[in-house]
Amino acid sequence: MRRGTPVPATGTPAGPGISQAPPPRPVTPPGAFQEAVPSSGPQTASIARLGDDAPFSYGDLRARGIALAQAASGQLWTDYNLHDPGVTLLESLCYALTEGVFGAEADVADLLTAPDGRIHYRRHALHGAEEALPCRPTTELDWLRWLLDRVPAVRQLRLRMPDADGLWRMALRVGDGDGAAAARDVARAFRAQRNLAEDMDGAPHVLRPRWCALDIHLSVDGPRDPGDVLVEVVRRCADIVSAAPRRQPLQARLAQRDAAGNVAGTAELFDGPAVQCGWIEAEDLRRDPANRLHFSDLAHALREIDGVADISALRLVPLDATADAEAEAEADDAPDSLPWHGTDWALQLRWPEDSMAVAAWQVTRRGSQLHLDTRALLARLADARQAARLSSTAPRATRFAGQLLKRPAGRYLPDTPYLSIWHHLPPLYRQYHAAPRADAESQAQFGAYLALLEQWLAHGSAQMQHLRQLFSIEREPARSYWWAPLGQSDVPGLAGVHTLPQEAEAAQLARDDDALDRRSRVLDLMLALHGESCDQHSIQRFGVYYDAAGWQRHLYDCKRRFAQRIVRHTRDRGGAFDDSRPSLGRKGNTAPLQERVGLLLGLEQTHSRLLAGVPGAHGIALDNGGAPGARAPLAMHGVRADAPEGVEPLVMWPPLRARIAAHLDDDMALGEVGDRLAYHFPALAPRALPAPLLRCAAHAGRYHRVATQAGDALWLGPDETGHWWPLPVRHGPGGVIAPALYLHELACRVQREAEGLHLVEHILLRPLGGSGMTDADADVPADFYRHRISLILPGWTARGADHSFRDLARETIALGCPAHILPTVHWLELHALAAFEQDFSAWLAARVAYAEAGGGPDATSRLDACAQRLRGRLAAMDGPRTGAAR
């Protein structure tokens, strides 16, 4: 800045037009009173003057800048006029800074709105209240609401877990529908939403109806037809007698407002499982099955019907006797009521079907008895009964499929180029620093000065305009930074400052963008919005099957998939698979805990599938079953316990490695992997490949060469026991490099695809045929079924044989498992895993057949036999419980 008129040290201006920093002003809350104490006279109260500028606003930044400039100038300061270049440049900088603040305070919805005017919530791992807030059915009340909502034909549902062992006992009653069909629907709905270590204790029991008839004397008034009044009386009475839950439309419940005008039922509506057919009040679900139905209460409820003036007499007449002797005795003692429920029955109203059923009814209007057209009344009752039957069936139930709460919406903000401070300067000042008044050197110097001040603002503006791309779950992100380098068009004089062409500069900026690392941190932020994290620091050192870049891409993809299905991995983390549908090889029917653990451990595939057949599918058979440390005598020929002389590491050539990977892709499609392995390694039989060799071959740093007179020899080692393997190869144009790359890529792919896990819930293995414990179950502990699961993982792979990886897997499983469930982890060699999967797949198929047959004797016998074999296998694995995860 130019220095001009001297200013006293006290900061007082020497004359008019001299700028100074404003004196400090006492801070007083807006609207507060401040006591002013003058030197003389009485004390007076005054309202403190409000500050004109908000903190860090344009005016506030400008005042701060002038104060700092004055403090740095000492006794010299400038006149405060528009032509002053220092103050003008300061004002321009403050304007640019406040523009950045203004952009940072932009509405998030606007920043996320796409050019089509919509916010793509799935792309940003965002979910509406209808999906994110409700939880899985957990308590008895949750299950009642869920099952009654999914099977509207059910009028009464009893649900309890008497022993708190995970076994639910169910009993239900329907109106005029098929009770057996409703029981199957309830069982299907339960299995679809079942929790880990929970099951039904047998099929839902269908309560038999105890029929009763209505005897009523009532008076009517108003213009309504008496026949319509009687039809509604019978319909309402049937609903009350059968204790049918009252359903309120979801939109109507959200429309209710409290005294303050807020939505009344929002919190309760999302506190529990999501409903589709309507809201059921909690008092309807908590109704005590032992209550009695008093006729006076029934009459009071019927008086609320439009057109009913009074009910002078009302009673329910039982039409059949009940086997419950205690209920019969209570009925004799209380003639004005009937028991609502019994041990295996429930009260139900018989709709009038003939003239005898309505012969005793009396209807009066203003004291005069009305004549009833019996035939027309029975026809109306039949129509109403049929309509009630149809409305309660599941396929015809009206399910809500929209959005209960309106999601935020914004307006699309198009990309705008950055406008430099240069364009905000007065014309006189721009002319002074531009040609022809300024020489090229001065012009470039001033342009570079401006670029230093505002280049970071330009970059920030570009980054803000691309937040929609940054905060998205892309599969393979190409960039995480968006740049806006200032050039000659932005600030004159920059043409000679840049040393790189525009294309080279863009390439240099792209090389500095570690997109995967930054996008991974963005995913951490997005997961934190849901109260979740996907820490991958512990798994970083177990990327044996990938190169460095490929491992980071895979970890990013695991975290991306975790965020993509965040609701499933948080809300549904305690859920189980649907055992009534096929699960092996089906991505849509896997326990969320199994998928969660797989993603956190960096598995390539996380759905339930068979694992032991992967090596055979590639033409490879392992000897010794793959047990760590085991060796076949025939494979020991030439194996050394120490490193051979002259050994040196083999450098993998990346271009050739890419070509080998492409050949492997073709081989896997053609099924010729074993033949190609035999070609490169004539002395290595792919049908009896030593498992320690395959595990060692997955480590790229364990390939070595030894120079001999006949050419380079390929050695592999050290393996898990410290031994070295000589690998006679068929030399090619690249010597031993191509065979080594082929073996390494093959070993990595086979073991990468063979890794996974199986989850077995012990409660599903209990005997169902009623025979109880058999001789084969003598070794099964007494607490084998209660709140326990077993997880089976392959222990023959390079990572599965690593004890550090096993410890990490146990810790991950223990942290992700629900607190009331005890997980047990087993690591199996290949042959043992194949035997387990044979029994496991047979048991799963038997579970599906059992559900489809509705628990028939043949299906039950088959399931018990399969479960018995699997129980014995798991009990033998458990031993003294040393494999428990916690």
Q: Let me know the largest β-sheet.
A: 5 strands, mixed
Shape: flat
State the distance separating the first and last CA atoms.
71 Å
Low-confidence stretches: 1-41, 632-636, 882-886
> What Rg, in angstroms, do the CA atoms define?
40 Å
**Estimated structural class:** alpha/beta
Work out the helix count: 29
Region (Disordered): 1-49
Biased composition (Low complexity): 1-17
Describe this structure in words.
By secondary structure, the chain is α/β, with parallel strands linked by helices. The protein is 38% helix and 13% strand. It contains 29 helices and 24 strands. Helix 27 links the parallel strand 23 (788-794) and strand 24. Helix 2 runs parallel beside helix 15 (440-465). The protein is flat and about 115 Å long. Residues 1-49 are annotated as: Disordered. Residues 1-17 have a biased composition (Low complexity).
Defining traits:
about 900 residues; alpha/beta; five-stranded mixed β-sheet; 29 helices; about 40% helix; flat; disordered C terminus
Structure at a glance:
This protein is of the alpha/beta class and 886 residues long. Helix 5 crosses helix 6 and helix 18 (515-528) packs parallel to helix 19 (548-564).
Layout of helices and strands:
Elements: E1 33-36, E2 44-47, H1 58-73, H2 85-104, H3 108-112, H4 129-132, H5 140-150, E3 154-160, E4 167-174, H6 179-192, E5 199-200, E6 205-206, E7 208-220, H7 226-241, E8 247-248, H8 250-255, H9 266-269, E9 279-280, H10 282-285, E10 292-294, H11 295-302, E11 308-318, H12 325-333, E12 337-339, E13 345-349, E14 362-365, E15 368-369, H13 374-391, H14 427-432, H15 440-465, H16 467-470, H17 502-511, H18 515-528, H19 548-564, H20 566-570, H21 592-600, H22 614-617, E16 622-623, E17 647-649, H23 654-670, H24 673-680, E18 689-690, H25 691-697, E19 703-708, E20 711-716, E21 725-727, H26 737-754, E22 758-761, E23 788-794, H27 803-816, E24 822-828, H28 830-853, H29 857-878
Parallel strand pairs: 4-5, 4-6, 7-13, 7-14, 16-18, 23-24
Antiparallel strand pairs: 1-2, 3-4, 7-11, 8-9, 10-12, 14-15, 17-19, 19-20, 20-21, 22-23
